[in-house]
Amino acid sequence: MNDKTQVAAQQAAQRAVLPAVDVYEDETGITLLADMPGVPRDQLELKVEGDALSIEGAVRAPTPEGLEAVYAEVRVPRYRRTFTLSRELDAARIDASLKDGVLTLRIPKQAFAQPRRIEVQAG
Amino acid sequence: MYESLLNFPNSLFGEFERLRRELDDAFGVSALPSSIRSVAAGSLPAINIGRTPTSVEVYAFAPGLDASKIDVTLDRGVLHIAGERASAVPEAARGKVNVYARERPAGRFTRAVALSEDVDPAHVKASYKDGVLQISIARREAAQPKRITVQ
Fold it and tell me: What is the CATH number of the domain that holds B43?
């Protein structure tokens, strides 16, 4: 293989499609749900680098011997999406679970950012 | 007078619209021959179909479903897949929840796929793993390629 083939193969491995996400925030943190069908737990990568959270997963579907494709709507077997987290989110305490192809991330807010009622002393 | 403000004859927009329509008719998705039951690309769930000498494999990428509630039926060579998914985003009724993105489809979905004549409806297996519904339909014996020896 010459250099050009290797570069092309690397680029092909890097192509990814954006998974659909639902993001909502409540008082204690942010919940993110991402649709990543076909990604088993061992192919899922979650990375936090600085303030960037990236989710990446490779699709592995069991394919029997000699399978030839007839019709494909999903052609890129990789999902990748990156989010920027704001300062008040505590990236060290992210809770992640993957079930039936849905990744659920729960990112709590830092302790100082949680809403707190301040009692006003009378008099 | 005119149907739409964007469609004056000789207007800039009118010309673009006509050009777009002509290109679509010549090269667009609806211009390609398609099966009478095919749906526009982008309908859900996404489906990949593959074929081995002994079976036809259909993969439907539908995450977040309850396996017991997915309806798969095979009727006269047409495979129907139907199911429902509830939205996971809580309604912002209480005013304490901000929704920033709601891209994941929710609700009922149904898709029909026309399969080739040689599938055997008596031998169908379906499994749901990691959000992928895999349906394997055996092909009839007569459809499998047979080697013919030359005397």
Answer: 2.60.40.790
Reported as a single tens digit per residue, the pLDDT across A54-91 is 999 999 888 887 788 888 888 888 999 999 988 888 88
**Measured between beta carbons, which residues in chain B are less than 8 angstroms from residue A40?**
130
Model-level pTM? 0.71
Residue numbers in B near A63 (CB within 8 A) = 50, 57
Same domain, B118 and B88: yes
Residue from B130, B133, B135, B144 to probe the interface with A (highest A Cβ count within 10 Å): B130
The answer to whether the Cβ–Cβ distance between B61 and A67 falls below 8 Å is: no
> Can you give the residue range of the structural domain that contains B6?
1-33
CB–CB of A24 and B100 under 8 A? yes
Q: What is the DSSP letter of B18?
A: H
Output the CATH code of domain A17-62+70-113.
2.60.40.790
